């Protein structure tokens, strides 16, 4: 495992706090030339606005940046309706939607909101079923049928067809869920606090092994990394906690040595300052360094 050679992308993890200037920050990310805006999906969190509503507003007030749930909480999102929402926003935004998808966590809160409580195995099985249904609802087929343990659709009419091939990116960590990613998903979407760089080789290897077993090319699976940290002017305080030069060095290493191709800033501290510094000081340097490494 190493550099899969996929094009680099950079994004911003927009925390959906109801009192924050969310659309102002989204427009700033767009103007600064970032590629992605991801929004976590916790409908039961009282201080957050609803994720798909926010993504729709973000798409409406921006021009080029792509949007995605980071990641959608499947137990609270029926897959057929989730497919419809993603395809609809993709059409309305001119092909600027991807789909981050999670099996579920925070089960007490999910259950309080009327969702099912699932074991790890059942959550993974439901995720597998959901991928089948979502892709069926994007296919344009006249009648989509599926009968599973957790979900069923009986002659569902698919449509609209997305404006571009929407990627399904799984935010998962367990061995069997990583195997599902390799076998069926378009991308893997971990977060650095839960999958630090020293863990990436092992986790990526599980994806690659499953992809090869399924007859897929491992290098075709995107690796999108939510990166938590702070850009400072002081000495290093650990991974992604230090000056922009340190960030550029560490992210270049994560790209060329550990195979991650996209980086979504999950910033601590003043959000506008961090966002500007990331886009203006870190991103261009990482692009330049990775390009040199790939040529050399």
From TrEMBL:
<dbReference type="GO" id="GO:0008726">
    <property type="term" value="F:alkanesulfonate monooxygenase activity"/>
</dbReference>
<dbReference type="InterPro" id="IPR050172">
    <property type="entry name" value="SsuD_RutA_monooxygenase"/>
</dbReference>
<dbReference type="Pfam" id="PF00296">
    <property type="entry name" value="Bac_luciferase"/>
</dbReference>
<keyword id="KW-0285">Flavoprotein</keyword>
<keyword id="KW-0503">Monooxygenase</keyword>
<dbReference type="InterPro" id="IPR036661">
    <property type="entry name" value="Luciferase-like_sf"/>
</dbReference>
<feature type="domain" description="Luciferase-like">
    <location>
        <begin position="23"/>
        <end position="228"/>
    </location>
</feature>
<keyword id="KW-0560">Oxidoreductase</keyword>
<keyword id="KW-0288">FMN</keyword>
<dbReference type="GO" id="GO:0046306">
    <property type="term" value="P:alkanesulfonate catabolic process"/>
</dbReference>
<dbReference type="InterPro" id="IPR011251">
    <property type="entry name" value="Luciferase-like_dom"/>
</dbReference>
<protein>
    <submittedName>
        <fullName>LLM class flavin-dependent oxidoreductase</fullName>
    </submittedName>
</protein>
């Amino acid at each position: 495992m190493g550099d899969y050679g996929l094009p680099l992308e950079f994004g911003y993890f927009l925390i959906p706090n109801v009192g924050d200037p969310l659309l102002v920050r989204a427009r700033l990310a767009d103007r600064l030339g970032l590629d992605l805006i991801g929004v976590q999906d916790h409908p039961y969190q009282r201080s957050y606005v609803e994720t798909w509503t926010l993504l729709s507003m973000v798409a409406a007030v921006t021009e080029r940046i792509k949007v995605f749930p980071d990641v959608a909480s499947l137990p609270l999102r029926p897959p057929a309706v989730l497919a419809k929402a993603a395809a609809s926003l993709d059409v309305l935004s001119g092909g600027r939607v991807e789909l981050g998808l999670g099996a579920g966590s925070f089960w007490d809160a999910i259950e309080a909101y009327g969702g099912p409580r699932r074991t790890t195995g059942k959550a993974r099985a439901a995720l597998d079923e959901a991928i089948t249904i979502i892709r069926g609802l994007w296919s344009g087929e006249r009648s989509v049928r599926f009968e599973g343990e957790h979900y069923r659709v009986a002659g569902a009419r698919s449509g609209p067809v997305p404006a571009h091939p929407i990627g399904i990116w799984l935010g998962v960590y367990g061995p069997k869920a990583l195997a599902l990613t390799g076998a069926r998903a378009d991308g893997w979407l971990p977060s650095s606090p839960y999958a630090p760089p020293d863990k990436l080789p092992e986790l990526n290897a599980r994806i690659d092994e499953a992809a090869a077993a399924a007859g897929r090319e491992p290098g075709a699976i995107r690796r999108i990394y939510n990166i938590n940290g702070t850009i400072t002017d002081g000495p290093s305080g650990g991974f992604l906690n230090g000056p922009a030069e340190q960030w550029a060095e560490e992210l270049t290493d994560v790209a060329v040595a550990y195979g991650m191709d996209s980086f979504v800033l999950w910033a601590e501290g003043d959000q506008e300052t961090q966002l500007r510094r990331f886009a203006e000081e870190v991103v261009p340097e990482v692009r330049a360094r990775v390009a040199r490494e790939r040529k050399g």
